[in-house]
């Protein structure tokens, strides 16, 4: 049996179109975009084309796109940059308990530096409540940072509704849209955000490149000092090779988004159907309707996650228990803990399946068939 990769929320393989583009850039376009000679102008052209593509994908101005080394750097620039730039207007920040650690850890660092941070809870649906955001707002709130789609459960957060609450407030609104960018169309004006993070390697582009959308009237304190690149917001010679790959990944995504969305939904539906056919006991973690189709988090009673993952890997199935950034941790998922409490069994028996463009419905049948005997063995061990 060919291995089946179902961990696309962690990372995606590089698309063939992206490989072809990056190969061409490696062979023919090496110039530094800051150089004024023809090789530099060639590099600048690649950079400008990529910025144009990203801006159009978000319905944003050309000047609002800042290329970074990935989602983590973009989140850090948004959070630290906003907090320090607007500290004269307040020192209160609002986020949620289910954010990616690229948001939670910067917020914790700011707490240590004297900022006040409110961590909003979620209910068992995995969604933050808009009324909780409104209740937490203070006159000195300067930043609200809430993810668009949770990377462990696939649950969509009410970003536009939260934006409406912030319309007449001074707070800058940032969203980590890394898991939204590859699945749902994004219009930053309709969404109502001031800052937005996206990443290349979640949409079949190369690792090590991402972007931060920054509304033009929002100021950030620089986190890196150096040259004039990225209008000083992110100095350092641009990685034109990776950015060109990101550009191609966005173009391919834009041309196929609806087909991908339908494909992911068909895979999710088929997996659920096949698990039910096998008589496997399971439940879905998080809201059943407000979710993206490419991520589903399932609880399998009477199993233990580490043994389950190991057995699945031995069977040729690659899945995860949550964020790849904490894969080596023995601690339960902070997302599921926020949803269900610290002692709930779902913290230790839940698996994330995340689908990709190369997965098939037949794969879903094979996965369910492989899971059946594994669960039967594990239930005997656990009980």
From TrEMBL:
EC primary class: transferase
Reactions the enzyme catalyzes: (sulfur carrier)-H + L-cysteine = (sulfur carrier)-SH + L-alanine
Keyword Secreted found: no
Record EC number: 2.8.1.7
Aminotransferase class V domain location: 4-366
Cofactor(s) needed by this chain: pyridoxal 5'-phosphate
Gene Ontology MF terms: cysteine desulfurase activity
Keyword list, A-Z: Iron, Iron-sulfur, Metal-binding, Pyridoxal phosphate, Transferase
Entry similarity comment: Belongs to the class-V pyridoxal-phosphate-dependent aminotransferase family. NifS/IscS subfamily.
UniProt-recorded name of the protein: cysteine desulfurase
Organism: Alkalibacillus flavidus
């Amino acid at each position: 049996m060919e291995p089946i990769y179902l961990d696309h929320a962690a990372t995606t393989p590089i698309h063939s179109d992206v490989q072809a583009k990056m190969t061409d850039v490696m062979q023919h376009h090496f110039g530094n975009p800051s150089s004024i000679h023809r090789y530099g102008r060639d590099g600048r052209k690649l950079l400008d084309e990529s910025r144009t593509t990203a801006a159009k994908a978000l319905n944003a101005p050309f000047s609002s796109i800042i290329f970074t080394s990935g989602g983590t750097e973009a989140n850090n620039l948004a959070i630290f940059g906003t907090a320090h730039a607007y500290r004269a207007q307040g020192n209160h920040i609002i986020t949620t308990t289910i954010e990616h650690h690229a948001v939670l850890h910067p917020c914790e660092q700011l707490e240590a530096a004297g900022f006040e941070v409110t961590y909003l809870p979620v209910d068992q649906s995995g969604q933050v409540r808009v009324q909780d955001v409104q209740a937490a707002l203070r006159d000195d709130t300067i930043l609200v940072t809430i993810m668009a789609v949770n990377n462990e459960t696939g649950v969509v957060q009410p970003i536009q509704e939260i934006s409406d609450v912030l319309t007449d407030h001074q707070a800058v609104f940032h969203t980590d849209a890394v898991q939204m960018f590859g699945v749902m169309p994004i219009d930053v004006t309709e969404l109502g955000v001031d800052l937005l993070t996206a990443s290349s390697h979640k949409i079949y582009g190369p690792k090590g490149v991402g972007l931060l959308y920054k509304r033009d009237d929002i100021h950030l304190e620089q986190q890196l000092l150096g040259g004039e690149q990225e209008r000083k917001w992110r100095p350092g010679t641009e990685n034109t090779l990776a950015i060109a790959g990101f550009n191609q990944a966005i173009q391919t995504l834009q041309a196929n988004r609806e087909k991908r969305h339908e494909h992911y939904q068909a895979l999710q539906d088929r997996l659920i159907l096949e698990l039910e056919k096998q008589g496997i006991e399971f439940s879905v973690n998080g809201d059943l309707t407000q979710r993206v189709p490419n991520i589903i988090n399932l609880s399998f009673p009477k199993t233990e996650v580490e043994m389950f993952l190991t057995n699945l890997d031995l069977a040729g199935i690659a899945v995860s228990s949550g964020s790849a950034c904490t894969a080596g941790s023995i601690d339960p998922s902070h997302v599921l803990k926020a949803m269900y409490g610290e002692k709930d069994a779902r913290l230790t028996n839940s698996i994330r399946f995340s689908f990709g463009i190369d997965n098939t419905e037949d794969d879903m049948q094979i996965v369910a068939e492989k899971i059946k005997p594994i669960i039967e063995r594990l239930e005997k061990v656990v009980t």
